[in-house]
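# nightly structure sweep
# worker-07 picked up a monomer target from the shared queue
# config: single-sequence mode, recycle default, output format = structure tokens
# input follows
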Amino acid sequence: MNRSASTGRDRVSRSMSPSDYDLAVIGGGSAGYAAARTASAAGLRTVVLEGGPEIGGLCILRGCMPTKSLLYAAEVRHLTRHAATWGLGPQEAAFDFAAVQERKNRLIREFADDRVQQLTAGKFEFVRASARFVDSHQLALSTGGALTARNFIISAGSIVAPPPLPQLQPVGYLTSDDALKLERLPQSLIVLGGGPVAVELAQFFARFDVKVTLVQRGEHVLRDLDTDAASVLESVFRREGIAVHTGTRLLAASRQGDLKVVAFEQAGRQIEVAAEEILFALGRVPNTASLGLENAGVNVDLRGRIVTDTTMATSAPHIYAAGDCTGPHEIVHLAIQQGEIAAHNIAHPEARRSIDYRLLVHVVFTDPQIGCVGLTEQIANRHPIPHLVARYPFSDHGKSLILEAKDGFVKLLAMPVTGEILGGCCVGPLGGELIHEIVAAMHGRMTVRDLATLPHYHPTLAEIWTYPAEELAAGLR
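# output follows
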């Protein structure tokens, strides 16, 4: 064992009474694995407890990886069907949905097998059991045993939220988990929700010839993003044949023969839509109800989300939390950072670290993709925060014209005097990739002048960032 690892273990062992482990991690997903890896590297006697039916966590099994595999298949088909744009053909683009699903399943098996290997490689102990706090230092296991630990990290993840309409239960509906496992496509689908999962799956199904109706409570889809970004996506959806209803209030759900019906209010009118299936995509909730957190003195908010400070510590000083069960942003790379920070702070209490959301990144994998980082325009206007803003459209950019990817824009926000970049948004081709140029710029505290003079190869998509940067740089005092 190296010196730093030995010091970490000795420090924890001397400070508290004997226990089975220095650290018990509840949950073996991305946050839990990151926490365990960090803690074991620091010399802590660590155990990971995973009680789910499968090993891998939400991202691998039912989130990022399977959805992006399916979305890319839909994009390839969409491009094939529009090949005449580039003088190519034919454009029938027939598909085998079973083969699409099998490729996705094969990829997920590979990713999950890698995670199993990581969890069982021997760097820490791995126990297949659910856990519930008996008191602040003891867990009862679903296998009938128990264990004690000096410290805990809760990374229990999330589950699909309960439906807002009681009638949905007897009518029947698909969750996002169910949608990824379908063996047969429905002919028509009502999507309830307008968040990232809802819009991604809505476009996926529509591009595989399902008649899709999307019903969103807010005035726009993707309510956490700027309205101009959401408006572009809504326009594209309608052009592709998706019926988009925003500003609605759900009223009821029922059956009419073989169809499922959803009634909602919109602009004072009652509207009914019918489809073969309903996809309930109104989000997820923390998976905390069965953990016995009250026995450990761990506080939760009204949604069941574990309350933490910026060091990821809960109301119980030796218990930390990371990932979807605490939030505030259900994003896998943040869950990993939270797990690493929590483990570091347990191992090194004299050099505690804090999570920093200044570089908060959001990516929505629709077409066009949407990538955002840092300050959004709606937040800047709401508080208010002094800022300058400039946009540039893809419809006037050389490389995007070549790609026939003319929807959307890039946008930069900057400080009025210094020109330091405060945020960026890209709605357009490869938006999830292009936004990382602004992530890197903000990480280095670059100004719009710096970005405007940074060399960019021509013709590339990335050079579009120089146009709003140049506009803002010219306006600085």
